[in-house]
Write a structure and sequence with these properties.
- By secondary structure, this protein is of the alpha/beta class.
- It has 14 helices and eleven strands.
- The chain has an eight-stranded parallel beta sheet.
- Helix 1 crosses helix 2 (63-71) and helix 4 (121-127) packs parallel to helix 6 (157-169).
- It is globular, with a radius of gyration of 19 Å.
- The chain starts with a strand and ends with a helix.
Length: 316
């Protein structure tokens, strides 16, 4: 299935058909992107065939969701698969953030809501507590406020594997998982090597992000933007989410989708050989090796309170 220049893929076991390139929401609220440009980017992307829209409750103090919500008026809502993320680990905080996202996005139902920044081993225990965030999302799904549930993280593939394991222990299967998938990741603490096979085996929708790491990977002078996107598209991703802050960058994303062909083994090996040295210590994947991209570490209040029964166990 194609729409103009955009191929579509199936989102894991959901059966949903989504554009292989997804529009990242964070860039829509940046200071150098004014509101008219943000609305034009979203509407042009939809008109040209992108139907997967990414966002988060915490992006740019809500500006990203507010702008996307405005862009989805005038008959656009039924053309897209809308995703956002919440940071709350407690049931009450997750519920509050979800309701705020619904208001900002001006919708009654969000297609996919994901637990954002699962970057600590304890995050998964907090969301699966009886008074945790996953209970809030399951209730919201029952109430028709959302359709699918997933999680994201950018720190360490072993934390993703731990999150999947704890979910299984609770009899829960995520619909989607979002993670960094790029030409550097293949060489260092690799999500592609460790997590991707598990998601494929369980038919969980794979959302790739940080294909260029907010442009940092390009500073290595080893690869082009198109090569970065082609590498991520070559993996068994349902969607490769990319940040777009101009119509020129939007054109670049469509060019990558239009020109993508599955890479041969020799082409893939040649591409990875170009990045092997630069990638070996995570120098260009700062989301793995520093706290700069850990917004929930900078704003711990977003996570909400620890469960009351847990607090009672701590000596006074």
């Amino acid at each position: 299935m194609t729409h103009l220049e955009m191929p579509y893929r199936v989102l894991g076991s959901t059966g949903e058909r989504v554009s292989c390139i997804g529009l990242g929401g964070w860039h829509l609220g940046l200071k150098h992107v004014d509101e008219p440009l943000a609305l034009r980017i979203v509407r042009t992307a939809i008109d040209r065939g992108i139907n997967f829209l990414d966002n988060s409750w915490d992006y740019n103090d809500g500006a990203s969701e507010l702008r996307m919500g405005k862009a989805l008026q005038e008959g656009c809502r039924d053309k897209v698969f809308l995703m956002t993320k919440i940071d709350g680990r407690s049931k009450s905080e997750a519920t509050r953030q979800l309701d705020e996202s619904l208001r900002r996005l001006q919708v009654d139902c969000i297609d996919l809501v994901q637990h954002h920044e699962m970057i600590r081993y304890d995050d998964v225990h907090r969301i699966f507590d009886p008074e945790g965030a996953n209970a809030a999302l399951v209730e919201a799904r029952r109430a028709g406020k959302l359709r699918y549930i997933g999680f994201t993280g950018h720190k360490d593939p072993r934390i993703h594997l731990h999150t999947l394991e704890v979910a299984r222990e609770h009899g829960f299967k995520f619909d989607t998982v979002q993670m960094p998938l790029n030409v550097m990741d293949a060489h260092y603490r690799s999500f592609a090597r460790l997590v991707l096979p598990e998601l494929v085996k369980d038919n969980i929708g794979v959302l790739g992000m940080k294909s260029m790491a907010n442009g940092i990977i390009l500073r290595s002078k080893t690869v082009t933007p198109i090569e970065c996107l082609h590498y991520a598209l070559n993996l068994p991703t349902s969607v490769v989410i990319t940040g777009i802050d101009s119509l020129k960058i939007l054109d670049q994303a469509f060019e990558a989708a239009r020109t993508f062909r599955p890479l041969s083994d020799s082409e893939l090996n040649a591409l990875l050989a170009k990045t092997a040295q630069a990638a070996s210590h995570g120098t260009f994947e700062l989301f793995k090796t520093t706290s700069i991209f850990d917004s929930t570490a900078t704003n711990p209040e977003w996570l909400g309170e620890e469960p009351e029964r847990v607090q009672k166990l701590v000596p006074a």
